[in-house]
Amino acid sequence: MWFVFEAEYAVENGRANWNKPVPETMAWHGPFASEAEADKVARGRMWAKVDTYAHRARVVDLTDRRDAA
């Protein structure tokens, strides 16, 4: 199960701190059936906010693998 995590990040000393997402801007998109589908959404979200310096959309795999033994 694939999701896209999107957020703007804190800017400190003129640089984005990729470890500090701004809570008000965090969003989850999905679930998606495949990584390719989630990647298309992530790329679209990145292009939608291409002018925002400290913005990122990441593909996240949240597949439950506990029973996959």
List the helices and strands and how they pair.
Blueprint: E1 2-12, E2 15-21, E3 27-32, H1 35-48, E4 55-61
Antiparallel strand pairs: 1-2, 1-3, 1-4
Describe, in plain words, how this protein is organized in 3D.
With about 70 residues, the chain is of the alpha+beta class. It has one domain (about 1-60). The protein has one helix at about 35-50, and strands at about 1-10, 15-20, 25-30, 55-60. A hairpin with a 2-residue loop joins strand 1 (about 1-10) and strand 2.
Gross geometry: globular
Briefly note the structural class of the backbone: alpha+beta
Work out the number of β strands: 4
Quaternary assembly? single chain
Number of helices: 1
* Major pleated sheet: 4 strands, antiparallel
Mean pLDDT: 92
Question: Helicity range of the residues?
Answer: 10-25%
Report the uncertain regions. none
How much of the polypeptide forms β-strand, as a percent range? Answer: 35-45%
- Write down the domain tally: 1
- Rg, Å, rounded: 14 Å
Distance between the termini: 17 Å
Task: Summarize the helix and strand pattern as letters.
Answer: EEEHE
